[in-house]
Amino acid sequence: MEITQQCVVALTWTLKDTLGETLDVLDEPVEFLVGGNDLLPKIEAALQGHARGAKVDLHLEPEDAFGDFDEHLLFLEPRALFPADIEEGLTIEGTALPDGTHPDAPRNVLYTITEIYPEHVVLDGNHPLSGIALRLHLKVEAVREANENEIGHGSCGTGFFKIEVGENHTPADPNRLLH
Q1: E strand intervals along 87-133
Q2: Count of structural domains, the chain
Q3: What is the CATH number of the domain that holds 79?
Q4: For residue 140, what are the CA distances in angstroms to 19, 35, 60, 125, 162?
Q5: Which domain holds residue 48?
Q6: Model confidence pLDDT, tens digit, residues 86-119
Q7: Are residues 110 and 130 in contact, defined by beta-carbon separation less than 8 angstroms?
Q8: Mean pLDDT of the chain
Q9: Are 41 and 118 part of one and the same domain?
Q10: What is the pLDDT, as a whole number, of residue 85?
């Protein structure tokens, strides 16, 4: 079966930056809905017409992947607003930011605590891979027809390429980059 819209594709991959440093490896196949919300548009376009066993190499500029780094998503917040046991790398949903944080901090973003100072905490609402051009080596492990539930939800439930936070969304595992 060839990959078309509204089918499910099982992928493995190796993700590198443009210097060749490996950023992520997915050895076990994970299913994604093509034509839904699971994959970045450039990845979907590159997969079209391929079948099981295909290998696809992509170069993704930041605008085709996780966007450019946005300095407006960096916030310096008073240390006293946060629990004593916070650590660098901890993630916080924008909807759960403590009272007193910057009123312009978007609430539909997942923030990472990137630095902790005695008086301040740095919150970064950028995706960890924002601003980075990527090289993605994909292997199509399987292709199948999507079921009605997957089509109705627009997803196989794997939000590896999108971090959504909001009233009806929970973030992907915040301790991992893509999976």
Answers
A1: 91-93, 110-116, 120-124
A2: 2
A3: 2.40.10
A4: 25, 16, 18, 32, 20
A5: 7-66+130-153
A6: 999 999 999 999 999 999 999 999 999 999 999 9
A7: no
A8: 88
A9: no
A10: 92
